[in-house]
Design brief:
Elements (H helix, E strand, L loop, with lengths): L15 H4 L24 H8 L4 E5 L5 E2 L14 E5 L3 E10 L13 E8 L4 E6 L12 E8 L5 E7 L1
Antiparallel strand pairs: 1-2, 1-3, 4-5, 4-7, 5-6, 7-8
Length: 163
């Protein structure tokens, strides 16, 4: 710890790691962010649009069904003829839970918060957060509108507010 950074203590002072010549006990401590997405393949366009304040869902050109979460096929007819569609951003509250305890970083600093499932106007259900409303005002069928919350310098997530 010559540079002043905290280090990982693997509990094996001079133990197996030291005998193997490992530097495991001297690695800097890092905090894992459990709220950050891993954009890849079919989700990259979704996260780029969210950063720009747009909610994208998939639309099947074979059967017309809308779907969310992003995937390379239609969950209704299994066609691969799907394209991005900008959702209206309107939704209704299907169900929710107020989370009072979550020890995973960075959620611990956010409690209490509302984890919810909303019905998008286009049809798909989406897991999200509802913000900017008192917990006691939440109601099944409540009209909501998408909003966007930056969660890091790189990522923005869609959340919902009362319409």
């Amino acid at each position: 710890m010559a540079d002043g950074r905290p280090t990982v203590n693997n509990g094996q002072a001079g133990g197996a790691a030291a005998r193997r010549g490992s530097d495991w006990g001297n690695r800097p401590v890092t905090t894992v962010r459990y709220d950050l997405p891993t954009p890849e393949g079919d989700t990259i366009a979704f996260w780029e649009a969210a950063r720009d304040g747009r909610l994208l869902i998939k639309r099947c050109t074979a059967c017309g069904a809308f779907s969310y979460y992003p995937r390379p096929f239609c969950p209704e007819c299994w066609s691969e003829a799907v394209e991005w569609h900008e959702a209206s951003g309107r939704a209704t509250l299907y169900t929710w839970s107020v989370i009072y305890n979550n020890d995973q970083p960075p959620f611990k600093e956010r409690v209490p918060y509302v984890a919810a499932i909303v019905d998008l106007e286009e049809g798909p259900r989406m897991m999200t957060n509802v913000i900017d409303t008192a917990f006691e005002d939440l109601r099944v069928g409540m009209a909501l509108q998408v909003a966007f919350r930056p969660i890091s310098e790189e990522y923005t997530i869609p959340v919902f507010v009362p319409a």
